[in-house]
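Please predict the structure of the following assembly.
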Amino acid sequence: MNRLIATTAALALLAGAATAQELTVAAANVSDYLEPGTDHSNVGSQFYTNAFETLIAKDPMSPNNVFGPGLAVSYELLSNNLIELKIREGVKFHNGDDMTVEDVLFSLQAMIKVMHDARIERSKEFFGNITRAEAIDDTTIRVYAKKPEPLMELILAAQQSMIVPKDYLMGLTGRPDVDESSDYIAFGLAPVGTGPYRVAEFTPATRIVYERFEDYWGEPAPYERVTVRQIAELAPRITALVNGEVDLITNVPPDQLDVINSNPSFKAVGGVTPLFHIIYFGPEGDIVTPELRQAMVKSVDRNLLNEALWLGEAVVPNTHTYPNYGEFYTPDIMTFDYDPDGAAKIIADNGLEGTTIPFITHPTYYTNGLLAAQAMQEMWREVGLNVELSVTESWEGWGSKDTMANWSNPMYFADPHGSFGKMWAPEGAGMTRGFWTPSIGMDEWGKMYDAFRFETDVATRNERFADLMEVVKNDAPFLVLYQPFESWGMRADLDWAPYPGHIPYVLDFRAGYIADEANGITK
Amino acid sequence: MSFILLRAARAILTMIFVVTAVFFASRLSGNPIDIMFPEGLGPEEYAFWENYFGLDQSFFQQYLAFFRGLTEGNFGVSLTEFRPVTEIYAERLPNTIALFGSAFLLAVAVGLPLGIYAAVRRDRPVSTVIMAVAFFGYAIPNYILAIFMILIFSFWLHLMPSSGNMTWVHFVMPTITLAMAMMAWNIRFTRSAMLEILNEDFVRTARAKGLREALVVNKHALRNAMIPIVSNLGLQVAGFVGWVVLVEAVFALEGIGSLIVRGALLRDFAVLQFGVIVWAVVVIVANLIVDIIYALLDPRVRIGS
């Protein structure tokens, strides 16, 4: 240990690096761009909270929806489709610009009526019911919804609602008075927000360096500098931690936890992630039929997968619901039951014996993704189905007709619309890609979905959600496998964990969310 | 002069041919957008990115646009990093030059004297040891050596950083790893080149007329053996990408070897195309330097002759 400390200190001296209040993180993946309105990836979600903020802040510590002031000092729901917000004064962007009501309106309008086509889906998914935002005076804005909007606070607290500087963004390329697509792309490489850390250096897919933003309006960032480096492979990531090169590493699979925990200088911290690993099917064709999907969904023993791959630490749900939903958590709905006999009967009745279907997967993208695919391949073989794994770095064939693949359904905000809806509502990501055409017809599905989406009575809304899940059970367009148990490795004297009120994978190093004995930082 | 012009024209034609081959071959491997957005895109977003990168045009139109860009000094925008490839290469090239340059110098500084010694004193036990080490260095893949070094010096002994390129210390293990194979190759090649020359008649004549052994070896034998040795070193430089690829990957060193591999895996056409241009330039420059050294070593070789 002494030698480790001495060597580390010597290396730091050699590097000429001041070690005061610095944190170095090795992440399995670093984003290609940092533009919060376009991004909805699991990789990107790690990086926004330190540098960007929303009007309404959601408490990361609480698994429930607890809201508070963010860049708005207060807000009031004037009706069920209208919210008024008082904008915080004295807020500066990282480039030195003052945040004005113009910036706030621009940030929201750029999601409501998108100029940048890469945001189209985000706009539909998050802002589909929001019609406009307008300024009442220099510090007050109103946001209007088409239909009664029970999720107004959640939408305004989402990553896609983060506030960006209008003049800076529009001036990046082309005409400075127009927000062209190229402006958003340029912004993704030189992001500017209002958060406690500014992005001082960003090399896509390689490194993000945050530095404390001295003009931050709130509690200052605890670290002077946080560096996130991409170390894609697991073994070098663990070595970098054990060797004292980094303080924290991401994406530690369960079978490596002992490697870290057996060393008293380090620890692994994990938690069930608000994200589902799922398998889904491509558009129907000669192979993918509702009957085949039903048989395949029924023949997967998810509890066995959990025991074998996650040491029982993952959570296997009955339906597409998270405990984070609070009063909208519906664990009693049974949508995905393990029934190999039922699967065998469907296969026999429909002559599906020996059906061959390609399963597209990636060797490392999802923790245990490939192992799960291999295990399920054997489960399907037992009921007479022949699944051919196509393991590729390029996801070749992903989403094609007559295929299946693994995917994730993250919880983008703590409501069924923030996960199930984000993927499987009529405008959801799975539907716009054509993965599923409901047997009841798209129009009817849309009506059923809206009946759930805009219902304000809790019990009735949960009933409507159960109606939706009944259709899912019948059509079997996907199978929710589990909420994975993801782990992070770190120095033993660091007190950090993923917080239950965040979307998955957020690396939150703001004041109050990390303690670091070596750097004299307390929560 | 005409010789230089002829060589330049040939080099440019070769480069156009290679870049064209890479241009079409990489595009035949499929569409990069699926890889760029692994969690999928909706049809409208997909169409936007295809249009943005010009991938909705025919291969021929893309090819014309690419060459039009070249004439304007525009080498393209990375499909995965959304910024000019020249900017990316400018960030990474110094790391690769530092790594390859230091490994190359080490391999030459150690490999050539040991090769000469092993040839001149071929019956000594030390020579046997040198050749055994050379055999080991030649036989062991550098990524295996790299992993062992990380295991020993980083994981167990905590003496060296295992990854990155922040300080010169981060280059120590990658340089040794890379130099090992090059050095082994240099020892073996230098030894065999020297042995061949040492058996020549003029060497026997030199010895017969009573010259000191050092003079025989250094002036008569080595100078003649240097022609194939320099050719070999030129090939090493020309093949630098092949040498650095795995070392950069294992040590997470941000150089252009790992960039080109990533470009191939992610179908980042612009990165690949510019990588080939950079590589071709290095090959041309290496060949030019080798030619100049030939002329210095051998008075019979004259530029323009």
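Residues 166 and 190 of chain B are 35 Å apart (CA to CA). The domain at 91-255 of chain B is CATH 1.10.3720.10 (MetI-like fold).
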